[in-house]
Description:
Blueprint: H1 30-38, H2 48-51, E1 64-66, H3 68-81, H4 84-87, E2 91-93, E3 111-117, E4 122-128, E5 132-138, E6 142-146, E7 149-153, E8 158-161, E9 167-171, E10 177-183, H5 185-190, E11 196-198, E12 205-206, H6 209-212, E13 235-236, H7 238-250, E14 258-261, E15 276-282, E16 287-290, E17 292-293, E18 297-303, E19 306-310, E20 317-321, E21 326-329, E22 335-339, E23 346-352, H8 354-360, E24 365-366
Parallel strand pairs: 7-12
Antiparallel strand pairs: 1-21, 2-3, 3-10, 4-9, 4-11, 5-8, 5-10, 6-7, 6-9, 8-13, 14-15, 15-23, 16-22, 17-24, 18-21, 18-23, 19-20, 19-22
Bound molecules: 2,5-dihydroxybenzoic acid.
Amino acid sequence: MSEHEPPGGALPPPAPAECAALGRLxxxxxxxxxxxxxxxxxPLWPSxxxxxxxxxxxxxxxxxxxxxxxxxxxxxRAGELTPIAKAERRVLVLANPGxxxxxxxxxxAIYLGMQLLLPGEWAPSHRHTPxxxxxxVEGEGxxxxxxxQKLPMSRGDLILTPTGLWHEHGHDGDAPVVWLDVxxxxxxxxxxxxxxxxxxxQPVEPGAAxxxxxxxxxxxxxxxxxxxxxxPMLRYPWSEARAALLALADETAVGDAVQLEYVNPETGAxxxxxxxxxxxxxxxxxxxxxxxxxxxxxxxxxxGGVDARIGASAAExxxxxxEADTCCVPGYTPATLANRSRREAAFVFVADEAPLHRxxxxxxxxx
Length: 367
Ligand code: GTQ
């Protein structure tokens, strides 16, 4: 689907006449408002500007920086306080205060959680309507079994657990494992379609899909191991993504973005239906200004240190992101990322709402 652009690029600022003050609720006789209420009716005009503000949408999502050094001790404490049997999923949710202090939202559609699994623990099998991915932050030896495929979880790996697929997590290693969960839960919940089903132990075979689809442009021939599932690839190893970024950097003009999207290798479409996932490389010393787009986005540093300058000049904030830190950026917001190192590349995992915006026809890039 093509990108929706307002005619003539960015919309012009509204003429004052277009934004004339409209009648307020208080202007109406109390008995009239009461009789509307009784009949479950609401006048539009007092709320019209709030629903359809001029030029720029109202956004509850705020810029937030979650430092891993602050999350980690609290997550390990959760490991002491709450046994896995009492948690099922031992997660601290990254709650954007713009959506309320107890919100389970990073943005209107994105949920983020840091999940801890201790050696020997098991998070039992279930399936649910929201789509989930895991970005492994720390530790070795954990695995996720998705639809019977046992997928090892190493740092930087992206593991998909798409809508409706059984999944359970286990850990055969000897140190805590932490990963970042990214779900479209806020949207699926808003749609009144969020639920889960418990499963027992699921059958397990070693996951081989990433080897079936290990090289770009080459997929198994029909009848010779071609997957007909909606989600043929469920694990994207960091070693592959990192190598692909370094190769792309060799082919990309200095100063241009070196970014890859995680896609379904059979269709080339985004790996999941609602949220998009990308891996971004910043060359040593590189500063990259991102296009201003409608979807909210999340940045999570896989390797290196990155300064994120976010917001229009008057309200600009600079976040100093360290390895394993996560931040979120509302839609329609300028953002510039700078690699603090002059010697090493930095690598950032990006999650955004772009596939959803494109499907809804509201995706916009502003220049
Ligand atoms: O690991 O299945 O952060 O079901 C939230 C809901 C993780 C999971 C979350 C979940 C999971």
